């Protein structure tokens, strides 16, 4: 049987493995999974019951753009965050992941260039990679992408899309500064390129205050802003959204309709009921408190057990701690040695060219604090051992 060339040429992004449950005795820092103990299960159950009890419409086809009352509720939440949005300009998707896929489908021809942060979210590389673009990787600094390199890449031509996670970037946890947000938008305007602002972690800030979104600063409709219920409610709902210029949203609605007709009517109605009867922001506050504690446990655990030559991020929000090992230490080799006890995502998975080997992404949200401590001990032991072998005894911690 002849398969499409893009399938033959494609690599498995390994997303299935990332989201798998940990094995027995193994602590997983790999997938960006929320803490299941914090799912508002009872409240969501009530939402589903209400949605099913009130009308048979919850079991019927409804609309590709999404359940209108939910779109209205989302528009109100976006406006409260400063993002210009109306019921009509919000498209509901199957998680943020589908929004990434639809946006790729909208703008990418094979060989078109896409600017991505390096490292970046591997699911974005997978979704956009389907459309066979050329990825242009821009390094991420503490205040976001290197704008000089973004400008130089745009000047070479052929760029159709800039993909960025400006708030608590996956995986580095960095936040793009206001100055860089403004520079990025000026460049998008100059070269008339679409910016995909992927913001699933924006509400999960543990200290400080949020900057305006790119979409809020966007004066001339170059930004599509994507969000999700996965990290703030539950990923099993598979509900996300995208908002932007109406004519682009209308095109995306058409593409979604062609692809899967629409998202689950029942789930959308259940979440709409949840939002009508519960305070999602109060729930998010609980998440913030818990995840802030877990983040601190991980960061301090690692700081205590690793030498200063290992760079350990201290993110102000999001799901991930990012480690940079001294050059020459391969995180895949460390993973092979520790993976019966602790897993993480090695940096190779997070770059289109898979060429950076000394980084590690550690998700702190899913394991409990005792497991985080145990995982950090195992991981630090593995890193210190690799450093003794590669760099000599003096550089590792005993
Ligand atoms: C940056 C980013 N974008 C999108 C997604 C996909 O989210 P969803 O579950 O809403 O499809 C994730 C999930 O980890 C993510 O980290």
Automatic annotation (TrEMBL):
The keyword Transferase applies. The keyword Cell membrane does not apply. One of its GO terms (biological process) is alpha-amino acid metabolic process. Its cofactor is pyridoxal 5'-phosphate. InterPro entries: Aminotransferase_I/II_large (IPR004839), Class-I_PLP-dep_aminotransf (IPR050859), PyrdxlP-dep_Trfase (IPR015424), PyrdxlP-dep_Trfase_major (IPR015421), PyrdxlP-dep_Trfase_small (IPR015422). Residues 52-377 form the Aminotransferase class I/classII large domain. One of its GO terms (molecular function) is pyridoxal phosphate binding. Keywords: Aminotransferase, Pyridoxal phosphate, Transferase. It holds the Pfam family Aminotran_1_2. Homodimer. Belongs to the class-I pyridoxal-phosphate-dependent aminotransferase family. This is Aminotransferase. It comes from Lacticaseibacillus sharpeae JCM 1186 = DSM 20505.
